[in-house]
Write a structure and sequence with these properties.
Helix 1 packs across helix 7 (210-223). It is built from 8 helices and 9 strands. With 246 residues, the chain is α/β, with parallel strands linked by helices. The termini are far apart. The chain has a 6-stranded mixed beta sheet. Strands 7-8-9 form a 3-stranded antiparallel beta sheet, sandwiched between helices.
Length: 246
């Protein structure tokens, strides 16, 4: 009997969204859409819907570590997506947990503010996020506001300038997502290639969770063995599809 083909395994380390539109729930849907087996390590529980975040409860460090170990020791991990981390103790716990997964590509979606406007990263945790997490990323996927916050550049900075500035913080490549820009194009920069990734743009009434979907799709394609630019192009299509069918 022939052996079954290997199905890549992607691990999302992020918060849970009770409304099902973002966070772990969106990540697992994106993994399934992209043909990888989705696993998860939940670092925070949120009570939220498409309009507001009511409350956030973080998960203790030992439980974060145990979730990652449980996946890595049995199923293995081909790529990791990191989403909302909320506070510095959680950032530090996740940084420790990453030692369990080995040398696999990591996609970091530096979630700072929800679509509803709720703060999802304690400002005191930003430096730890950059030093402990962003520096280990194969690809970082900030949106316009997150790139400004991370880089310290003002509103006059172009998307190209923001992508370059975020890459200087440590990730090997950056995809500045275009959902909050005038033309809607993502910008990819890996130190050599600077490319606008264009695609269909849809009304943003169903944009809640689009960033989670994009970064998870990108991680899924890296798990399949795609190069970062090809993965970014494919992820742009998946995110647009999700918004269109929201």
């Amino acid at each position: 009997m022939e052996a079954s083909p290997h199905v890549p395994v992607a691990l999302t380390i992020a918060g849970s969204d009770s409304g099902g539109g973002a966070g772990i729930q969106a990540d697992l849907k994106a993994f399934a859409r992209c043909g990888v087996h989705g696993t998860s390590a939940i670092v925070a529980l949120t009570a939220q819907n498409t309009r507001e975040v009511i409350s956030v409860e973080t998960i203790p460090r030992p439980m974060i570590l145990d979730q990652v170990r449980a996946v890595a020791s049995d199923l293995g991990v081909d790529a990791v997506k990191i989403g909302m981390l909320f506070d510095q103790p959680t950032v530090e716990s996740v940084a420790e947990a990453l030692d369990e997964v080995g040398a696999v590509p990591i996609v970091v979606d530096p979630v700072m503010v929800a679509e509803s406007g709720a703060v999802l990263l304690d400002p005191a945790a930003k430096e730890a996020l950059v030093e402990l997490i962003l520096s280990r990323a194969a690809v970082a996927t900030p949106n316009l506001g997150e790139a400004r916050e991370l880089s310290g550049l003002g509103e006059s900075a172009t998307s190209d300038e923001l992508a370059r500035a975020v890459r200087e913080l440590g990730p090997r490549a950056v995809v500045l997502t275009g959902g909050h820009t005038a033309d809607g194009a993502d910008v990819f920069f890996d130190g050599e290639t600077l490319e606008a990734i264009e695609g269909l743009r849809h009304p943003d009434g169903a944009s809640h969770g689009s960033g989670c979907t994009h970064s998870s799709a990108l991680a899924a394609y890296l798990a399949h063995g795609f190069e970062p630019l090809a993965a970014a192009r494919a992820a742009r299509e998946i995110a647009a599809e999700a918004v269109a069918n929201g």
